[in-house]
Amino acid sequence: MGRVVAELRQSREALAEAQLRASIGSFELDGHGVVHGSAEFWRLYGLGVEQGGVDLERLIHCVHPEEREPVRTGLARCWASREPLQMDHRVRGDSGGERFIHLRASLRTDMLDEKETLRGTAQDITERRRSEEEIRFLAFHDSLTRLGNRRLFTDRLRFALAQLRRSSQMAAVLFLDLDHFKRINDTLGHEAGDQFLVSVAERLRHCVRDS
Fold it and tell me: What CA–CA distance (Å, rounded) separates 118 from 79?
């Protein structure tokens, strides 16, 4: 008996370590609205290890205010329709920032007592979301100066021209050039040239509206 308990403890410890490394936590939601989760699950939501489980509303309170209702509705729909749930939502991170969580759940029925529980996982996808946002940003912005690139300019210009044609108004395009910029690269090096471009970009940013 002692050997079985030891093996079970080792198995649980191995599972907890694997979940920690993958930033994935598992949970169960029973018919009384009580959530039971792994240690990593509670960590992702900024709660302590709750052995007895917590009320669903307490867990939802950890979700970003703008996304609490979608999470609540999604879990209820999953329970009622038996259709699997997949959704992303935000929670407040340890340092005050936001953390993105990918939530998956499905309704399961126990073969022995026929009790139904909602079982699923929560995974921290913050780094992936930030990478995706950076890729989208760089598609329309210069990586050095963070200003809009030619693709963004063309898109905004096309939109502005369409509006001007409808209103029969006119617009002007301003072209700026940096005289003798090549001298900076040739005499001080490309790193100094990059710093100069960043400085110019900051001045431009402070001279115009964000729009």
Answer: 7
End-to-end CA distance of the chain: 70
The set of long-range contacts for 22-25, using a CB threshold of 8 Å and a minimum separation of 24, is: 22/123, 23/123, 23/124, 24/121, 24/122, 24/123, 24/124, 25/121, 25/122, 25/123
Rounded Cα gap, residues 40 and 26, in angstroms: 8
Q: What is the pLDDT of residues 120-175, one digit of tens each?
A: 999 999 998 888 889 999 999 999 999 999 999 999 999 999 988 888 888 888 88
Burial of 38 (0-12, 13-18, 19+ CB in 10 A): buried
Q: What is the pTM of this model?
A: 0.65
Amino acid, res. 206: H
Residue closest to 93 by CA, chosen among 127, 119, 51, 52 = 127
Query: How far is CA 181 from each of CA 22, 72, 84, 120, rounded to the nearest angstrom?
Result: 48, 57, 58, 58
Q: Which residues of the chain have pLDDT under 50?
A: 4-8, 11, 13-19, 22
Residues 102, 121: Cα–Cα separation, whole Å: 8
Q: Identify whether the C-beta of residue 119 lies closer than 8 Å to the C-beta of residue 104.
A: no
